[in-house]
Structures are given as structure tokens and as C-alpha cells.
Amino acid sequence: TAIWAGSFYLSRRYVSANWWIPSVTIFTPFQTLWNFFSGDAATVTPTLIVGALILVALMIIGARREWNRARESVQLLLWWILLPIGLALLFSLRQPVYADRYFEPTIIAVALLIGAGVAALPRWGRVAAATVIAVGLVFSSFRIYSDPIFVKQQWREVAKIVEERNLP
User: Fold this and answer.
1) Fewer CB within 10 Å, N or C, the chain?
2) Residue, of 100 and 57, whose pLDDT is higher
3) Burial zone of 23 (CB within 10 Å; 0-12 exposed, 13-18 middle, 19+ buried)
4) Is the pLDDT of residue 38 over 70?
């Protein structure tokens, strides 16, 4: 933990050179959680708040369900989620360094706790939750490739033109 925190702190000068990283708010961790399942949530909406709260509830249910059987595993998953997000959030209070893409490995721990939460539901709840999550993931995946809001700059094409024309 100390090595990771020290490494992140020492490298944050380079990370914070990214002017595009926004300032953090109270909703930032919820946006991150929602982004893990929706692809992108640039603004806080009622859907984001409700969806993120449902995911947090499932994670809590999953952690409580597994606590007595696998306490060390649950603790590891919680550290895996809270350490990077919490420290980046804390560091961002001074200078923004909090970006969802830096937490992609955390998706695994989040998915495991949500899966344990879904497994703790009654049968009809498991079916409903799994269906909603699956449909949401399919919809989000389709949206990432089809929604114009996600169009990225064509930097490869620009680089090719600059190179072909020998531009500075």
C-alpha cells in the first residue's frame, strides 16, 4: 500500500499535466462506479445517482454475504477498490489527478462484489438483477460505438497528413 501510494504521489506531477482532468466532487466516485457499467457519464444525472446507489447496495450486500466465509478476500477486494480511488480523490483535492481510466483494474473487484450481491438475492431478484445488468452492459457497449458523443479526434489521420506533407 505504501509503495503504491508513494509511487502515485511521486508520479502525479506528470499525471496532473493533463489539463483535461476535471476537479473532483462528492459525486466523482459514484460517476466512476457508474462509468464501469455505462461506459461514460460526463454529467451527474438522476439515472447515474440511482444506478450507482443500486450498484453500491449490491456491493455492500455481497461484502456482507461473504464476510464470514472469506473475510480476508472481502478485505482485499475492498482495499482494491478504496485505496486507488480514495488516494486519487484525496490527492485531487489539491490538484486534479482523478481519472476513471486509471482505475480500470478496480473493475474486477467491483464486479466480484456485485456478483456476490446478486447471488445473495432471492431467485427472482437474481434473475432480475442479472438481466438488468446484462441488458445495461449490452446497451452501453453499443452506445460507446454508435453515439456521436463518443466520437474521438482522428489523431491518426492528422498525424499521417502532417507526416506526408512534412509539416512542423
Assistant:
1) C
2) 57
3) exposed
4) yes
Grid coordinates given for 88:
486519487
Banded model confidence at residue 122, pLDDT cuts 50, 70, 90: very high
What's the grid cell of residue 59? 456491493
At residue 113, the pLDDT reads 92
What confidence score (pLDDT) does residue 112 get? Answer: 92
Name the residue among 101, 135, 120, 132 with its Cα closest to residue 63: 120
Backbone φ and ψ of 13, nearest 5°:
-60, -40
In the chain, the largest separation of any two C-alpha atoms, in whole Å, equals 66
Res 5: pLDDT = 66
Mean pLDDT (whole number) for 55-72: 90
- Dist. CA 35–CA 38, nearest whole Å: 5
The Cα 92–Cα 28 span in angstroms is 11
